[in-house]
Structure formats: C-alpha cells, structure tokens
Amino acid sequence: SVCNISDRVIMMQLKSSPFNINLVQVYAPTSQSSEEDIETFYSQVEIATKTFQDKNINIILGDLNAKVGEGRDEDVIGPYGLGKRNDRGDVLVEFCKDNQMCIMNTYFKLPKRRLYTWTHPAHTAHNLIRNQIDFIIIKKRFRNAIKYTKTYPGADVGSDHNLLVSYIRVRLKKIINRNKTNRPNLEIIEESKENISNLLQTKISNIEPKEEVNEQWVSFKNVIQESTPDLKQAVRKKKTW
C-alpha cells in the first residue's frame, strides 16, 4: 500500500511477516528554505514512521539536503561519513536521536567515490565539490539487517545525484491468504441421519403451538440445534501425509 503524506514525503508499505517494511521516500527542503519549512518536513517524516510503528521496519531514504559530516556521533552516525556537518545536518542527527535511528551510509568503510551522493554544479576536475546529502536511515533495532550501503556514480540518467543502494537481509515469512472452507464429512452425516431424523420427529411433535410466528420459529430452531450436535464434528479433516 502507498500513503502520500505530502509533496515531500511518501510511504510505501510492503506486507510481510513477522514485520512489515515501510519505505519512507523523502525530499527535504534545501538550505535556503525557512526553519518553518524544515520543521514541517520533519513532522511529516515522523508521522510516516510512527503511523505504522508496531511490528514494522521503518526505512527512510532520499535526499535529506543535509551534511552530517565525518566522525561517529553516538549510534546515529558511523565512523565513515563525508565532509563537515552543517546546520541541516544537526537537525537530521537530532531527529535520528529522538527516533532511535541510524544513518547507514556512514557505517561502511569505502572509497570516497562510493560515499558522495551529490555533485555541485560548479564541480570541475580542478575544483572538486562533492557532498553526502542522500541517506538511508533505519531503526537501531534493525541496523544489522543492512549489510552494506554505497553509491554508484555514473548512472545512466541526467542527474547531479548518484544512485544510493543498500543490501538488506531480513528473515521474513511469506503471507499466504487462503479462504478456508469447511467441507462436511458425508460419511458421518450418513451414519447419523436415521438417529437424527427419529429424534427430530419426536421433539417436533412435542412442541406446543405458539400464537406468534417468531416464537414458533425459535422453538423449531432450538429443536434442530439440540438434535444435531454430531454435525458440528462432521467436518472433513485434511489427511496427514
């Protein structure tokens, strides 16, 4: 299922067991945006992650327009970030701390060409301007499910962003919806038919006439239910092979 939170936040839920997987795709306001826009954005992201929080794996991914920089920061940032943190990076880190989440593309030791996600328009061979502003973020509880995260520069698309990929391994059970239909065991019904018929005739003949039709119907219904307890067990069971 897909839930459109806003023009910057959208969530897709993948049904599975024992956990559903919620992919929250985001596009954060740029550094030129107002503080109000930033607060609104992170409120929307929080709504997306907490709406289906129980028994769910929440993964935030996309362009956060923030630089978290190098250096470990508690469990939020690993030792392999890139560049220097900016103000928007501070906001992102605080959001992750408040929601017990980890920024996973700072956790894997890779060449810098596999870390940067965005190239500045003014970038040249003599003036390298590359930053890490796209992230894949997951709850601390499921951090070990992500085996690696890295970028693939040079994707066949006109973009200043690199493709960011995570390999995730989660043990899930496939959900199979089956409409169970109880088929009566005709052998049991056949064996009980004569006894039930005799019992019904006896009890029906003893029913006192009622003035109200509904009362008469209730009397008949009770007699039938009391006379056929064996039919409740007359369900064909699946053979064990």
Q: N-to-C terminal Cα separation, in Å?
A: 38 Å
Describe the main β-sheet briefly. 6 strands, mixed
The residue ranges in which pLDDT falls below 50 over 5 or more consecutive positions are none
CATH architecture of the largest domain: 4-Layer Sandwich
Q: What is the fourth-level CATH superfamily of the largest domain?
A: Endonuclease/exonuclease/phosphatase
Element-by-element helix/strand order: EEEHEHEEEEEEHH
**Strand ordering within the main sheet:** 1-2-3-4-8-5
What is the CATH class name of the largest domain?
Alpha Beta
Global structural class = alpha+beta
**Strand content bin:** 15-25%
Instruction: Give me the count of strands.
Output: 10
Query: What average pLDDT do the residues reach?
Result: 79
